[in-house]
Amino acid sequence: MFSVLRNLGWFFRREKRRYLIGLILLIGVGVLELFPPRLLGNAIDDIVRGSITTASLTKYIGMILILLLVIYWITYIWMHKLFGGSNLVERLLRSRFMNHLMTMTPSFFERNRTGDLMARATNDIRAVSATVGFGMLTLVDSTIYLTVVLFAMGFLVSWKLTLAAVLPLPLIAIAMIFYGKAIHDRYSLAQDAFGDMNDQVLESVSGVRVIRAYVQERLDEKRFSDITEDVYNKNMAVARVDAFFEPTIRFCVGLSYIIGLTYGIYLVFRNQITLGDLVSFNMYLGMIVWPMFAIGELINIMQRGGASLERIDETLNSKADVQSAANPVQVANPTRIELNDVTFRYPSSTIDNLTNVSLTLNQGQTLGVVGRTGSGKSTLLKQLLREYPTGNGEILISGVPIQQISLDQLHSWMGYVPQEQILFSKSVRQNIQFGLDNADDDTIMKAITAAAFQNDLGTLSDGLDTLVGERGVSLSGGQKQRVSLSRAFIANPDVLILDDALSAVDARTEAQIIENIRQERAGKTTLISTHRLSAVQHADMIIVLDNGHIVERGTHQELLDMNGWYREQYDRQQVENNLSND
């Protein structure tokens, strides 16, 4: 049960001063709380004996008030320390969790659903933070504070009465063991169900246009209703076990009260304790009610925290399948890119997605990559991003194997515009500035002009300050592509990779963008994959892929002369363009 505290040892060692002060003060308050009942019992005994005076009554009242003020002040400090630690571990875990996700490769996100990761980053981290705050409180109160109160009952009143009153307590321990295991298992299932629900919400919101287009609203509502019903049932299963804690403890504490009162009256009549002792004892008995409840809360919160920490650690312990070189080789500039007999297969694939691919690209050259859908165009370009472990063969940059170059340096050279554009829920300006922090308007407009987006600014409600919505929902497909291109252009990378990034723009706009690329990126390397051959006619080298193999290569004219797939596709697109113009 306490494995969660052991696994959080790194945090307690880091914040040992905070927890040392907090726990000492918490224990100190527990000790101080023993004095008011004893003072009240002494006062009652003085009244029974008839020896009470105004001075002694004032003294009793004054001492109790002073104790209450001291307890109030110390309680404020220990609560600030313990619950401040709860907020601190939540911040640390969330930062560590997010930073870890930033280092993960695509294969990790293929294995883990977004909704489940969100559940771990929210509910699970909050459950762990409660463990180091409220959990530490219940741990101390259910052990040390309970021991102190029982010690006071035994030494300050009567050991016989104390032993009789605590007879029902073992029943609590037995019940807590049973309840604790049930809570752990059921809470894990409830958190998994919450992750499924998050996934469903994300899919429904991001795909709402498709859902409406196919008139699937009622079906999607039914699917969501079934998932929420499952979440409800699994959380109710947790609540049903949780609901047993308090009645079980109340029953056992009630038995203690009955035993304490009955046996206590018997001892008063036998003159073994005084009436004041019995009153003090009953107040102490009332004070152990919370520690009894704390036992239940401790089991509950530790099991929840343990289940949540297991889920968080499962994510944090996942290793990226692409690691930066331990002793990276420093490369000044990517002057030459070479692929020698590269064969690559995705982790989830059963066949090679690239086979014996070889090519050389010098700085300043443009490579065009064309081929049928699924021929391996995107796969080839992603080899330079190292999103997946390298396959067989060699990938060299400036003569250095890509595995020996640090990932940070490698990515700093690259500008990547994927097929599916990712825009953030910010303004057009902020999305473009993502490529260059704090870029001024002149620099932004230069990048926009290079992406042929300047004429579209006038159609946006607030120009550069127009909010694009989540994933750019307020922009058309062509506008999203050109904002993404502007973001890449403003970064002015050494190597620009355009993965079918012009598919949503018309032929005239495409021609303008390509001409801008040729002018603005003179002396820098560019790789373009496309289905429209007009986008790569200017390239220094064009390769045609088919099932991961390079089946044709050369310049535009050389490929036309080969009378292969490229020539066939080119003639077909020329006919289509002529028909469109007519």
Computed Rg? 36 Å
Class of the largest domain, according to the CATH hierarchy? Mainly Alpha
Beta strands, count: 10
End-to-end Cα distance: 77 Å
CATH superfamily assignment of the largest domain? ABC transporter type 1, transmembrane domain
Q: Major beta sheet, specifics?
A: 6 strands, mixed
Shape: elongated
What percent of the residues sit in helical stretches (DSSP H or I)? 55-70%
Q: What structural category do the secondary elements indicate?
A: alpha/beta
Q: What count of helical segments does DSSP give?
A: 23
Strand content is 5-15%
Average pLDDT for all residues: 85
Number of domains: 2
The CATH topology of the largest domain comes to ABC transporter transmembrane region fold
The parts where pLDDT drops under 50 for at least 5 residues are none
**What is the annotated CATH architecture of the largest domain?**
Up-down Bundle
> Which strand order does the major sheet show?
6-7-8-3-9-10
Please give a structural write-up.
This is Multidrug resistance ABC transporter ATP-binding/permease protein YheI. It is a multi-pass membrane protein. Residues 337-572 form the ABC transporter domain. It comes from Paenibacillus pseudetheri. Its EC number is 3.6.3.-. By secondary structure, this protein is α/β, with parallel strands linked by helices. It folds into 2 domains: 3-316, ABC transporter type 1, transmembrane domain (ABC transporter transmembrane region fold, Up-down Bundle), CATH 1.20.1560; 336-419 and 494-581, 3-Layer(aba) Sandwich (Rossmann fold), CATH 3.40.50.300. 64% of the residues lie in helices and 10% in strands. The protein has 23 helices and 10 strands. It has helices at 3-7, 9-14, 16-32, 35-49, 54-103, 106-111, 114-132, 134-157, 159-165, 169-206, 208-213, 217-269, 275-287, 289-316, 377-382, 407-413, 428-433, 441-450, 454-457, 477-491, 507-520, 556-562, 565-581; strands at 336-344, 354-362, 366-371, 392-397, 400-401, 414-417, 495-499, 525-529, 541-546, 549-554. The chain has a 6-stranded mixed sheet. A hairpin with a 2-residue loop joins strand 9 and strand 10. Helix 8 (134-157) runs antiparallel to helix 14 (289-316), helix 9 (159-165) runs antiparallel to helix 12 and helix 12 (217-269) packs antiparallel against helix 13. The chain is elongated. The model has no long low-confidence stretch (mean pLDDT 85).
